[in-house]
Design brief:
The protein has 420 residues and is α/β, with parallel strands linked by helices. Helix content is 46%, strand content 13%. It has helices spanning 2-33, 37-43, 50-63, 68-82, 89-109, 122-131, 144-149, 170-183, 197-209, 213-217, 224-228, 231-239, 252-263, 286-304, 335-339, 359-366, and strands spanning 135-136, 154-155, 159-164, 188-192, 240-243, 268-272, 308-311, 342-347, 368-376, 384-391, 396-399. The longest helix has 32 residues, at 2-33.
Length: 420
């Protein structure tokens, strides 16, 4: 009886011993992960980590500039003396050859910087002079003064930032500008993360068919095929790429290159809006996250010699009547003021640049809005105020005629008739 009981418990005791051995091995393995080159050289490795340690060792020797045959000799000696059991010779050679190939490739990729490349060259300067200049008009028939204020349009490599109080028509304005750019034969890549792409499309339809946006929102428009045949709509639809899917900023270059290959020029990039963008780098610090986004956007603009235009939020304190708008009104105030080539804010302001009383009512009833330009680097235009009017029925922004006393309201006689 006791013999049977002992036999039953023997396997269990063996299992417990095995578990303890595994624990010991795991501890050694975890310690091994923390080891540096010298530890591996001196003490060898535990089973299960030998290949990784061997790769670390060989990689270190290649980086020191040792000769290939010397490294192979040292490698074999280390394997025989420090690893129990040693790594098989075939496996050892595979590790050696793999690390050698990687190191050789890395050396090729490490290009020596030629200091002469920083000197200006006469022939290159003359060749680059007309090639690198990009100025993209966007005025069409509704924003001519704004275009003139911005030196004839957006310039290649510029980073433009639009802000605004709620319901000031930020997306409406940028959608109008994007459509106008398409009408000037430039492709547009519009990252639409606030309103969806259907809403953006309906706004374009409303503007060029001169029908109310509600007929599209409520799906009561019954002449979509006719609208699609409008010359403006056909052209815009062939050049305006609207992205609603969240794509990391690092992957945008592939989209840009595809459009560039198709149309022979990079797209003008629109973003609605900045804070909703994502990168592959994760951080819990919102300021660092925004800084990373800004850095990547300015790099995209410069590398592709194309404008990047984005909408950004204002801080809630900026919405109060009597509040003076400024660059500090942006939520991302700080780095953004330095990275932006041009910076403007939409708001209903008085002569002193302060938000008017009942500004929300003014915008809702009259559509009167001001674009206050706070920053304009050389080549991007001038600072100041541009008076605009938002027609929220047809989703159109146009310039507002003003005099010294009051804004001139839009009369019924000036309203266009629908094309259908």
């Amino acid at each position: 009886m006791f013999t049977e009981i002992n036999e039953i418990f023997k396997p269990e005791e063996k299992t417990i011993n095995d578990i303890e051995k595994v624990k010991d091995q795991n501890i050694k393995t975890n310690e091994n992960k923390k080891r540096d080159y010298f530890d591996i050289l001196k003490n060898g490795c535990v089973p299960g980590e030998r290949n990784a340690c061997a790769a670390t060792l060989v990689g270190h020797w290649f980086k020191t500039g040792m000769k290939e045959d010397e490294i192979w000799e040292y490698f074999q000696n280390w394997n025989q003396g420090k690893n129990t059991p040693p790594i098989g010779i075939d496996e050892l050679k595979k590790i050696f050859d793999s690390i050698k190939t990687t190191e050789q490739k890395n050396k090729k990729d490490e290009k020596t910087i030629n200091v002469n490349s920083f000197l200006d060259d006469e022939e290159r300067t003359i060749a680059d002079f007309p090639k690198n200049y990009v100025r993209i008009p966007f005025g069409h028939s509704n924003l001519i003064n704004l275009e003139n204020n911005m030196n004839g349009g957006f310039y290649g490599g510029g980073f433009y930032l639009f802000g605004g109080i709620p319901s000031s028509g930020k997306t409406v304005l940028l959608n109008n500008i994007a459509d106008n750019i398409c009408l000037n034969d430039y492709p547009v890549l519009f990252f639409c993360y606030d309103d969806d792409r259907t809403e953006l499309r309906h706004r374009t339809f409303a503007r060029f068919s001169n029908q109310s946006i509600e007929t599209f929102n409520k799906r009561t428009a019954n002449n979509l095929r006719q609208i699609y045949q409008l010359p403006e709509i056909k052209k815009i639809m062939s050049l305006k790429y609207v992205v609603q899917q969240m794509i990391h900023v690092e992957k945008w270059c592939d989209l840009i290159n595809q459009i560039k290959q198709k149309h022979g020029k990079p797209p003008v990039i629109f973003i609605d809006y900045l804070r909703k963008l994502r990168t592959e780098k994760s951080t819990f610090d919102e300021r660092l996250r925004i800084d990373d986004i800004l850095s990547k956007l300015t790099e995209i603009a410069k590398n592709n010699n194309t404008p990047v235009i984005t909408i950004s939020e204002l801080g809630r304190d900026s919405y109060k009547a009597g509040q003076r708008l400024s660059m500090a009104s942006f939520k991302e105030s700080g780095t953004i003021e330095y990275d932006a080539s041009w910076l403007g804010i939409l708001g209903a302001v008085d002569e002193d640049g302060k938000l008017k009383e009942n500004w929300d009512t003014i915008i809702e009833q009259d559509g009167n809005i001001d674009l206050i330009i706070f920053k304009a680097k050389r080549g991007t235009g001038s600072t100041g105020k541009v008076s605009l009017k938002v027609n929220k029925e047809t989703m159109t922004v146009c310039e507002r005629i003003t005099d010294s006393t009051q804004d001139k309201p839009e009369t019924n006689s000036n309203k266009k008739k629908t094309k259908f």
